[in-house]
Here is the input.
Amino acid sequence: MAVQIEHYRDMGEFDYGVVTQVTPLIRRVVCKNPTPFTYKGTGTYIVGQGRVAVIDPGPSLVSHVDDVLAALGPDEEVTHICITHTHSDHSAMTSRMQELTGAPSYGFGPHGAVREFDPNDKVDFSNYLTTDEKQKFDQEWDDLPDELKREGPDLSFVPDESVVDGDVMQGDGWTLRAIHTPGHCSNHICYHLAEENALFSGDHVMGWATSVVGPPDGSMQDYLASLRKLLPLEHDRYWPTHGPAIPEPIRYVQAFIAHREDREAQIMAYLRDGARQIADFVPEMYAKYDKRLWYPAANSVHAHILHLVETGRVNVVDGDAPRLTATYALA
Ligand SMILES: [Zn+2]
Here is the structure.
């Protein structure tokens, strides 16, 4: 029987902007950018004591960088700013943190392929929303500070130091090794903290929910390969950017792989009933979830379908491009 996913959602005691020492070598400051997509917000990690690394400076909120730097002691110094990937809630504050610390940034590289914006190629679930829900969601959007409305790819980030799989960074009493884990984002890096056998898993493996895989930069094939890549490494604990620590990571990753295999089988079953568009079955497939998550869920379903098209199991009807709003049928 497949392992069941139980998400980890208990962040323990924390206050926004206030540092928490979560292990001997790890401190975390949670940014106040909670949304349906970021859970409680971005968790920025400080690794080590003395000469420290910062993992993911966070979104465009200047106060968050101030909070992270205020968490350091008078004799401490940031020597490495490590980026897991170029989504704005992770990397946007890198340049600001560099101005204040002079530390170089580390990451796989700039953002990869960005979907050419086609205003017609978008899913619309507004027919499924009640008037109350529509009002509530619109209000939440209006209430969100402008700087947090621009989540998504951070096209401005270029690392000072490019890291590739296996690269090692060191400071006072800590050693981080980069593990390239494309899928959620093609330039996603997880960082392994050798001294605690812990993994900073970014958005590749999150505690509170499964990762969104958005084509074209996100790839389901890569995501599954990057999940399988973690299994033999046998880390003791993951520290994701969103959500609390994951205490049994191997079992959890196995559950994610099984979950994706189930999703793929579900999509094949929908298409067995006849040619369809993604928006036709996402509401049923994700009926249990917050409706605001249907939009990123449609991207993940699209990623599955692109993988099925590439492997010859599904066709695009009428020879259309494999767009989000195309009609798909079994090959
Ligand atoms: Zn992300």
Notes: The radius of gyration is 20 Å. DSSP finds nine helices and 15 strands in the chain.
